[in-house]
Specification:
The protein has 6 helices and 6 strands; from the N terminus they run ααβαββαββααβ. The chain is of the alpha+beta class. Helix 1 packs antiparallel against helix 5.
Length: 183
Amino acid sequence: MDYKAIYKKAYQLMNEPIIDGNCGLLCDFHCCRDLDEDGSRLGVYLWPLEYEAIYEKSDTFEIEKVPKEEHGDIHMPKDLSDMYYFYCDGSRNCPRDLRPLHCRTYPIEPHIESDVLMLVVEKDQIHSCPLLNQVEQWREEYINGIHEAWLLLIQIPEVKTLVKYYSDNRIRYNNVQSIIKGS
């Protein structure tokens, strides 16, 4: 399966909501805001080849190419190409079918340890998501869809490289709060 087909299938699998209802109503859409408290613009980095698979022919969102050297992490794997930064528009009417992977999976992160894919929650959180205290309400369909999607996505070598990179950092800094699902 080519990377574009993998991304399209992963997006479909990740369409399940994390809870019954709209999670954004719990925190006034904190993750979806366009500006930080200091006024700086917010968004998310796209995963390798996500831009090419999903957004390249779209003008719906503002997306900026960021040379890997400017990403701010000087230890990024050398074999990865430049990154793309997806700017949020602060809209509560975000087209859910076009949300980036980071938005689809948060607060769950893909994690590879001993060559096994797991879904984890990190200790250090950028957002104070109320769902972190309501894990018992997370829908099984959501968790299974996220897991199945990441099993597909790590077939893309660049994605697997980045998942391993983030996983190694979590291990190094003891930044795994909980394991949600393992293979």
